[in-house]
Amino acid sequence: MISFYRCVAVLAFLSIAAPAQTEARELIKLGTLAPEGSPWHETLREIAERWSALSGGEIELRIYAGGVAGDENDTVRKMRVGQLQAAALSSRGLGDLAPEFCAYLLPLVFADYDELDYVLARQRPALEAALEAKGYKAVAWGDAGFVHFFTQRPVIRPDDLKPQRLFWWETDSAYTEAWKQAGFQPVPLSATELHTSLQSGLINAFGAPPLAALSFQWFALAPHMTRLNWSPLLGVTLIKLEVWNRLPEQLRPQLLKAAEDAGLRQKSATRALSDQAVAVMQRHGLVVHEVPADAMRAWEESARAAYPTLIGAAVPPAAAAEVMRLRDEYRKQVGQ
Fold it and tell me: Does residue 103 fall inside a structural domain?
């Protein structure tokens, strides 16, 4: 059965690399891990429909969802060689293009969305400029929510997680090393292997936003969730700059506004749906574990201990310092 699904995925991806037929339109092939039917996929479909309407059918945004084009590092590589022209990436894939995004993956930097929004609003122009310097145009921003831990056995304190085999992104060598130094057991894998790895017992824990855990049905194989805002997972839809500049100049402002508006709606919807996703998963067997104050202090100590390994290796020091400076600026303003 696994071989069958792999064959289907390969056949679907072959159409990405195949030359376009006699098409008069601008064909833009976009890769994403977002599964079909998920809020993120629906947002991409909305952008595709709006771009087609605005261009009179001359621009086609063709979406390859659910990891058909591979993990996010594969998607980035395929954009670089021209097999894809666009992508919807999370912070992890974005970090392959502009390492400044990795500062948002540092654990427990942000307590809530208010802090995240304050910092990101002030950093967005610089982040977009960093992407453009690498040849990519950001057309829509959103997020997937805060990462929580989903496990096969209850986790409240860091020591509860240490015996469990934790999925981690295979390209994040610095993060993998930080986990190991702290006494955890990370298992580097592609995100496309997460479900089968839970089934086989290769891993028994992973970190993901609740809506992702529901959309991919991962939670059914790891039915304990630790209510802990580990790190936010940003999302950006981007297109190769050379392709963007090829689109009709008079249309670009309208195309950009359509994409930006869709991204804003997606962000609002995702945040509203996150708690609903938890409630739905609870009705299907998920057990949510709250983190008391003493356990929270232990998590914060564990996170801070990882910073020396991460900053400089995975996260540019200046980017980490600026994110924390802006976060502290916000906390001071609100009296925290």
Answer: no
| Among 144, 56, 138, CA closest to 98 | 138
Q: Tell me if 276 is assigned to some domain.
A: no
Distance CA 175, CA 182 (A): 11
Dihedral pair phi/psi, residue 247, rounded to 5°: -70, 155
36 lies in which domain range?
Answer: 2-98+108-143+233-271
Encoded tokens for 298: 């232990």
Question: Both 173 and 316 in a single domain?
Answer: yes
Q: Per the structure, how many domains does the chain have?
A: 2
What's at 78, amino acid-wise? K
Q: Count helices and strands (H / E) in the chain.
A: 13, 11
Q: What is the pTM of this model?
A: 0.88
Mind listing the pLDDT tens digit for each residue in 231-264? 999 999 999 999 999 999 999 999 999 999 999 9
Calculate ∠ Cα 287-289-292, nearest 5°: 170
Please indicate, yes or no, whether residues 221 and 239 belong to a single structural domain of this protein: no
In a domain, 278, yes or no: no
> Are residue 76 and residue 156 in the same domain, yes or no?
no
Specify if 277 maps to a domain. no
| CATH code assigned at 321 | 3.40.190.170
Cα–Cα separations (whole angstroms), residue 58 to 49, 245, 261, 298: 12, 15, 21, 56
- φ, ψ for residue 111, nearest 5 deg: -85, -30
Q: Is 222 helix (H, G, I), strand (E, B) or coil?
A: coil
CA-based R_g, the chain, Å: 20
- Tell me which residue of 99, 74, 98 sits closest to 87, measured CA to CA: 74
Helix (H, G, I), strand (E, B) or coil at 58: coil
Least-confidence region, from 68-72, 111-115, 172-176, 255-259: 172-176
